[in-house]
Amino acid sequence: MSNHFDEPTQQFSNRGQAVCKSTRDALLPVAIIACHPDPNRLGEFCALDGLMQFGEQEINRHWPEFHTTTSSIGQGLSVPQVSRKSMRLVREGGLTFILRRQDYSAPVSLNGEVLQDELRIDQQSLEQGVELCLGDHVMLFIKCMPEPAMLQDDLGLVGISQGVQQVRERIGKVASMDEPVLIRGATGTGKELVAQAIRRQSKRFGKPFIVANIPAMQPSLAVSELFGAVKGAFTGASTDRKGYFQAAHQGTLFLDEIGEASQDVQAMLLRALESQQVVPVGSTEADQVNVRVIAATDANLEAQGENEFKQPLLHRLSSYQIFLPPLAERREDIPALLRNFLQGHWLKVEGSDSLPVSFEAPWLSCDLVRQVMQAPWPGNVRQLLNITRQLVVDSRGDQHLQMDPHLLSSLSHSSVTGEAGRVAEPATVKRRKPSQITQDELLKALQNQRYDMQATADELGISRGSVYELIKRHPQLRAVGDIPDSELRQAYQDSGGDLEQMTTRLQVSRIGLLRRLRSMGIDA
After folding, report:
1. Are residues 98 and 89 in contact, defined by beta-carbon separation less than 8 angstroms?
2. CA gap 352, 263 in Å, rounded
3. Which of the following CATH numbers is that of domain 6-149+328-421: 2.60.200.20, 3.40.50.2000, 3.30.450.40, 1.10.10.10?
4. Phi, psi of 159 (to 5 degrees)
5. Higher pLDDT, 118 or 24
6. What is the mean pLDDT of residues 512-524?
7. Which residues of 62-90 are buried (b: 16+ CB within 10 A; e: fewer)?
8. Tens digits of per-residue pLDDT, 373-428?
9. How many CA atoms lie within 13 A of 501 on its CB side?
């Protein structure tokens, strides 16, 4: 069984291309600040509409003006190292342009090629996005796309790409309804974030939002965890116990990684969706529930046989679907995401969400940003979040943001690019049976992926649920739920609350560790 959601993601990508081609007149080059001596400006953008209206666009220290999605008031780059004199982008025809140096006196490069007199930018390059570096201080990412909309609320989804704008539109259309929603996308694309956005826009906002991580449930207890159990239903059931469905009554239940559900769970889920009734384990009476179900998967459920995923359940869940594009297909969003994550980590580490500003010796370099922009990001937004966390921690006390050489090497080796900065697809991992995975392989993969369960599963070519099962059998490993409270509190104290240190020390998932600490009342 493939756990990679390749086909629907490709369908989403193709749909986006179809939209572009059918609305070609609405497309125009958009310049996005990817690197700047003031890193708080990363992600600001400017639609270069002068190119389409007048056939040319000046670029200099003060023009064009860049702004955010929440404010139309903009400002120029305002960097001393950027020349006051202008270079020009001139429209040659269609979506092909010529970049001319003219009187611009400072160094310029386009996708690494130094600008002497002029450079040509063809339509294919512009559709993929080009990197325009103004000396060592500023990088602009220019891409042909629909003009980004001004927003009152970004729904917690950072970015201006067409893919993200489509996701926001779909959330707005379905949020007020009670229909099930199936969110589909690769690991780390933000499926739970989308589920939370749907809930916030719905009439169920303020009511329970319960997250059920299907692969994390023990197979023997999954039914009782979801639907509850009565006293005496099984060994250890000393009292009646509510399940996730009962806990989510009047609210929203998010079923993460629904493709990992067992056949028994699938059958009961289908009944619950159709009847809004659940039968606790050991009971003969059904509980009436009023729950909106949102499910998520990175698996191609259509390609699975009936013995793996029941098609009636798929049809019921997929009455409305939202497809999330991988990060490699929305590189124009990386600058804003990078700024957002850096500010969040900086706030935790330094107590301020305002990043360091220096026009003489920038805190953030164009070389580092180039590495980030060109990486294929198989772990998507979650991987970028983890990278930025390590960047901030590793650079504490330094004047410049620096990437660990090993981290830089891993990004460099994975960022194989073609002409015009096009990112190559990461190699597909061959699917394997869990029985083929040795204990040493499991331990090494967990260490390589910093105990991220989905990333470990991807490296090994098995499902995330299988990773949990292998951990249970491994003599050196344990689930976060098996760690005594006293050991967790001691590890928290010794590490000063640093989750990365705790994850490495305890050899457990960071997400699972975070949930366990919060359940103990520890602010992590």
Report:
1. yes
2. 49
3. 2.60.200.20
4. 140, 160
5. 118
6. 77
7. eebebbbbeeeeeeebebebbbeebbbbe
8. 999 898 899 989 989 998 999 888 899 998 887 777 777 655 433 333 333 334 45
9. 13
pLDDT of residue 140: 98
Residue 64: asked if its preceding bond is cis (omega within 30°), the reply is yes
Strands (E), 214-299: 252-256, 277-278, 287-288, 292-297
DSSP lists the bridge partners of residue 140 as 33, 132
> Is residue 300 within 8 Å of residue 6, measured between CB atoms?
yes
pLDDT of residue 494: 85
Evaluate the CA torsion angle 290, 294, 295, 300 in order and state its sign.
positive
Q: Which of 324, 316, 305, 301 is nearest to 380 (CA)?
A: 324
pLDDT, greater one: 5 or 101: 101
Structural domain spans, the chain: 6-149+328-421, 162-323
φ/ψ region of 78 (left if φ > 0, alpha if ψ in -120 to 50, else beta) reads left
- DSSP conformation class of 71: E
CATH topology classification for 162-323 = Rossmann fold (3.40.50)
CB 291 within 8 A of CB 249: yes
Domains 6-149+328-421 and 162-323 share a fold: no
Q: How many CB atoms lie within 10 A of CB 496?
A: 8
Instruction: Identify the CA nearest to 41 among candidates 22, 65, 15.
Output: 65
Instruction: With a cut of 70, say whether residue 117 has pLDDT above it.
Output: yes
Task: Determine the straight-line distance between the first and last CA of the chain, rounded to whole angstroms.
Answer: 36
Instruction: Name residues whose C-beta falls within 8 Å of residue 392's C-beta, 6 or more positions apart in sequence.
Output: 342, 345, 346, 349, 401
**Residue (of 452, 434, 429, 430) closest to 499 by Cα position:** 452
* Cβ(255)–Cβ(217) below 8 Å: no
